Prior knowledge:
Blueprint: E1 2-7, E2 13-19, H1 21-24, H2 30-42, H3 103-119, E3 123-126, H4 136-146, E4 151-155, H5 160-165, E5 172-176, H6 182-187, E6 190-194, H7 195-205
Parallel strand pairs: 1-3, 3-6, 4-5, 4-6
Antiparallel strand pairs: 1-2
Amino acid sequence: MAAVDVLNSAGEKVSEAMLSDAIFKTPVKISVLHQVVRSQLVAKREGTAACKTRGMVKGSTKKLFRQKGTGNARAGSVKSPLRKGGGVIFGPSQRSYAIKVPKKVRKLALKMALSAKLEDKTIHVIDDFKLDVIKTKELANVLKTLKLSDLLIVSDAEDTNLLLSSRNLPDVKVIKTEGLNVYDILKFKNLLLVEESIKNIEGRLS
Length: 206
């Protein structure tokens, strides 16, 4: 079990939190992390780019003029890709970019990402993070006291004040335990866990 200091909003140590070795001491494999992060990123692509083929273009299928004797190149339908307003050859069509990753691999990658943060000593724990009002300056002062920036905050409770106060801080993001994911953990330099969220994270990944 790894011990991590639990701080209060004033930056003072109040206790210690024990982190399970089964989750926070998992050997890190970059290939697994890469696979899961890539699947998260491509899932954001809508895949709605599309164009009309000659079969979709509205127009007559009548031959424009007779085959021979006019001096023109032979032509068929007005919907031909060679004519203005005709269909498009080999154009994009609607598709899904999703990459399926097994549930066990996603779970393993989450453990690896948390283990990497612990190994880099960028996991921090706070006893409570309740703000009385929605005020960005108040949150910024707390983070300044804790000397933390480029930060992902994981809270177990539905804290509207914390969530709304963080929206104007460009290097801070607040998520609930259920939304914890590999991409966000690796994107931010520091990870701040509200003490209550540790049990839920361990319960989710055990």
